[in-house]
Amino acid sequence: MSKLIFNHEMQDFISDLPDLILHVIISHLSIEEVFRTSILSKRWIHLWKSVSHFDFDCTRMVNPKKTDSSGKKRATKTDVMIYNNTVNHILHQHKGNLISGCFKHFRHQNGFEVLTSVEFLIERKRISSLSLECENLNRRLNIITKDYFKARIFSNLSSLELTNYKLEDSILSAFESCERLKVLKLKNMFMVDTTINGILQNCYGLEKFSLVKSKGFNSIKIENKSLKILELFWLNVGKIHVRVEDLQVLAIDSIICPPKDLRIYSENIRSFCSAYNPFDQRTQLRYNERNNILKTQDILENCSDLFKSQPINIFRKLLTLSIDLDLNNIREVLALSYVLMSCSLLNTLKITIPANKANKASTSNITTDDDDDDDCALPYVKSMFWETREMYYFELFENLKFVTLKGFTGKEQEVIFAKLLIARAYMMEKMHVICDSTIVDEAKDLLSLPRSSSRLSIILE
Amino acid sequence: MAEEVSSQMNSLSISETNPSSSATISLVSGDDIVFKVEPTIAKEMETVQSFIDETDGKITTIPLPNISSHDLPYVIEYCEKSIAGKITKEFEAEFVKKLNNEEVKELFLAANYLNIKKLLDFLSQVIADRIANKSVEYVRRYFGIENDFTPEEEAKLREELAWTFTGVDPDDEDEN
C-alpha cells in the first residue's frame, strides 16, 4: 500500500530510478555504448560494470582501415588485437555475474582467440545465454574445433546461438552433458550429418530449436523429447525426420526437401506456420533450385493423412494455422480444405496469398497464364468448390475466431472463401483482410455481406 | 517469424485458461479520471494485482497517483494486446511510432511503477534504441542528467574511451 503513495517529478527522469532499472536499459545497448555511458556523470562511471548483458560486436568496436580488393574492410592483426584486448579488459572490470553474452568477432586467424573468453564467461561469470558469431565477409565459413572449447563447456548454458561457423565432429565433446540447454539456434552453419545429429542427441533437453540457412548435412533426425518449438528456415536437405510427441509449434520457411521425406510424427502441434518465398535473397538458392522449395500444399498433403502412406495427421490439434497459400490454385486449395476438415480446435487462421508470380518472376520459363492454372480437374465448376464442402466444416466453425487474409487480390476464389467464412463461421470475431490499395473496392464488398456471427468485425487494410 | 511464433505460444496458454469474468477494476489516474478494466488486465500490472490480493479482492478501485490519464490508456492497450497474445513486432513498431521521447519516458516510469515486466522490457529497448549512436551531450539531455565532472575529468575519460566514439551520429536539430 505504501508503494502506491509516493511522489515524483516527471521531469527528473533518471535520478529517481534505482540502478537496477538503469541496468535494464543499458543492457540493451551495444558494448561501446554501454561503456560510453560512464562519461554521463559520476553516478554512471561504475554503473556499466554491473550490467547483466554484454554484446561484443567487432564491427562496432573496431573500425578496420584496410580494405581488400573487393573494397570490403578487412581487419588487420592489430585490429583483431584491439578487439581481443578490449574484450578482456572489459570482462575483467565487470563485477558480479552476467546473464548473457554475445560475441561477434573478426574472421581472421587470430580472431578466434576471443573464443577463449567464452570459458571465462561461462565459468566465472556464470552466463546462461551465449551467442557467438564470426564476421562473414565472403560467405566462407571458418572451422571451429575442439581446440577452442574444452569438453562439456556448454553444459551450464540454457541458451546457445552459433552463426557463421563450420563445425567438425570433434566439436561434439563441447556439447557433452548439455541436457540443460533449452534453446539452440544454428544459423548459416556447415555441419555434416554426424555433427548436427550428434549435437541434437547431446542436447536432449532442448525446448526450442532453430536451424537456419545451414548446409553440409543431408539428413536430420530430431527426437528431443522436451522440444516445444521447432523452426526450420531456408534449408536444402534430403530428409527431415521429427519424432517429438509434445511438439507445440512448428515453423517452416522455404526449405527444399522431397515432400515424402519430410517425416513428422507429432500429434500435438498447436501452431503451424509455413512460409514460402523463393525470391527471398536470404535463401541464397541457385535459380534452378527455387522451384523445388516445399510449398505449403506439399506439407499439408504429406503431413496429414490425406495420402494413406502417412499414418499421422499433424494438424488435428492445431489452434493456429498460418500459411502462404494461393487460394486461386485448386490443388493448393484441395490440400487446405482437407486439412481444415480435421482442425476442429482451430482458433486462428492466417493465409498469405503469394503475390502474382507473373510480376515477380517475369524472367521465369513458366508461361502458363495464372488465372487458369488448374492442375487438377474437378467434377464441378471451380466456383462451386467451397460450397460443396461447406457441410464438412461444422466443427471448424465451432472454434474459429480470428481470420487474416493477406495479399488479398479480389479474385473469384478468394472472395468465395472469404464469403463462406463470413456467412458460416458463426463464432468468428475478427476478419482481417490486407490488400493492395487498387482492389479496395472488391474488398469493401465483403463488408456488406450478411454475417453469421454477431460479434464479427471485418477490418480492411 | 520467431517473434510471431513466441507470441502465438502466449496465445496458446491464454486460450487454455478460460478467464472467468467477474467485476471490473477501476483504475484512477493521477488527474482523477477513472478507467474500467477487466480483472485479467489488472493481473498484468503486478502492483495493482498485489493491492487487490492484499484486500482479498474487496477493493476494486485503485488510485494510481503517479500515472496521468494521458499515459494510462497506452498501458492498458499494451496489456490488452499482451493477454491476447498479440504482441508482434508490427504492433510494437506502431505503438512506439505514436510516442515522443517524453511520452516514452513517462510510460517507462508507469511500467516500472506498475511493475509490468513485458512493457518495461520493451520500453527499455525503445529507450536504448533512441539513445543508440547519440552523443554524450544528447544522452545527458535525454535523461536530464547533470554533468558533475570537471572539464579536465571529462576530457580524461573521453580520451580513455576514444574507441567508443567511432559510431556516434551528429546530433539532430529536432530532438523530440
Automatic annotation (TrEMBL), chain A:
InterPro entries registered for this protein in UniProt: At1g61320/At1g61330-like, F-box-like_dom_sf, F-box_AtFBL13-like, F-box_dom, LRR_dom_sf, LRR_FXL15/At3g58940/PEG3-like
Origin superkingdom: Eukaryota
SUPFAM superfamilies: F-box domain (SSF81383)
Domain F-box: 11-57
PROSITE patterns: FBOX
Name by which UniProt lists this protein: F-box domain-containing protein
Pfam families: F-box, LRR_At5g56370
Native source organism of the sequence: Pisum sativum (Garden pea)
From TrEMBL, chain B:
Residue ranges annotated for the SKP1 component dimerisation domain, each copy included: 117-163
Pathway this chain belongs to: Protein modification; protein ubiquitination
Key words, A-Z: Ubl conjugation pathway
Location of the region described as Disordered in the Swiss-Prot/TrEMBL record: 1-23
Segments forming domain SKP1 component POZ: 25-81
GO biological process assignments: jasmonic acid mediated signaling pathway; protein ubiquitination; ubiquitin-dependent protein catabolic process
SMART domains: Skp1
Coiled coil stretches, renumbered: none
InterPro entries in alphabetical order: SKP1, SKP1-like, SKP1-like_dim_sf, SKP1/BTB/POZ_sf, Skp1_comp_dimer, Skp1_comp_POZ
Family, per entry: Belongs to the SKP1 family.
Subunit structure, interactors included: Part of a SCF (SKP1-cullin-F-box) protein ligase complex.
Function: Involved in ubiquitination and subsequent proteasomal degradation of target proteins. Together with CUL1, RBX1 and a F-box protein, it forms a SCF E3 ubiquitin ligase complex. The functional specificity of this complex depends on the type of F-box protein. In the SCF complex, it serves as an adapter that links the F-box protein to CUL1.
Name the UniProt record assigns to this protein: SKP1-like protein
Natural source organism: Pisum sativum
Lineage: Eukaryota, Viridiplantae, Streptophyta, Embryophyta, Tracheophyta
